[in-house]
Amino acid sequence: MQSxxxxxxxxxxxxxxHDRPVWLCTILRTWGSSPRPIGSMMAxxxxxxxAGSISGGCIEEDFLVQLRDGSLKSQYDIELKPxxxxxxxxxxxxxxLRLPCGGQLHVLLEFIAPVARNREVFSALVDSLxxxxxxxxxxxxxxxxxxxQHSASEQAVILDEDSLLxxxxxxxxxxxxxxxxxxxxVAEMALALEYDVTLCDPRPDYxxxxxxxxxxxTSELPDDVVRDNFSDPYSGVIALAHDPRVxxxxxxxxxxxxxxxxxxxxxxxxxxxxxxRLPELGLTAEEIDRLHxxxxxxxxxxxxxxxxxxxxxxxxxxxxxxxxxxxxGTCDTESSGMVCR
Length: 341
Hints:
Blueprint: H1 4-17, E1 22-31, E2 41-45, E3 50-52, H2 58-69, H3 71-75, E4 83-87, H4 91-97, E5 104-112, H5 116-130, E6 135-140, E7 146-149, E8 157-159, E9 163-168, E10 173-177, H6 181-192, E11 196-200, E12 216-218, H7 222-229, E13 235-239, H8 244-254, E14 261-264, H9 268-277, H10 285-288, H11 304-321, E15 331-332, E16 339-340
Parallel strand pairs: 10-11, 10-13, 11-12, 13-14
Antiparallel strand pairs: 1-2, 1-5, 2-3, 4-5, 6-7, 6-9, 8-9, 15-16
Helix pairs in contact: 1-5, 6-11, 7-8
């Protein structure tokens, strides 16, 4: 399972490898209400197979109509340079395409032929993304040639008169500790949010009845799993076992890494006790301060599904805008029922 940009780039490579030309559409600018951010992509074959999206479906539908009736090809010489299409610049067009009020999009269209150079470029992009490395594609707007830049800007798109630098991000991944009901719901929500999800629990028999389609499951030691696969800035580690033998093994490694999020479920009392234990595992005060515990945002959650919403809301907030520990809340599974604090 892949997501977002990685899925689109992989689809383009697959189509090129089968000698299928591809239209690649990239959002350059937006004004007003826009369902997709700058840098979003849609790839489409000449027979209408699509990967990705650049709107809520209205622009994709219009694009397919022009592709099928030949007007797209007749309006532009596909052997020439990429061109920009502006959507929503008139009230009539906005109404026809059912764009949100005031919404406008500038979209770059590139015709990518199935030639050796393009295959090599997209193969290199796929390799970098699969290795969880940020990478950019540099498009020469004068002739359509694409090259690979093994670095990326914080800006999704940098545009000038002659070139486009389009930064691509690999898929984010989450490691969940503890095969329980909360982990099941967290896994399902994380998959829906396009994370690559792994569930780890080394305790005998705990994995026997735990299954979520699309989640990799392992009984390896948690510290080894973190060290081998979850130490980069695109990794998150969520301790849900409520068992120090499982949770602390992962945390003692994860808090030393570049993982963008490290959190542990537990009450205020449990979290305080954990913070007293962690220095004994060789962690510094600065490393321990990275821990989100109590985990989750305060939304009054009580059931496992509600707790998962709280957890994934915090993971999303941290991923996009930074630390949210002051708004934290978690679930005390030590009591007779689950109570969020």
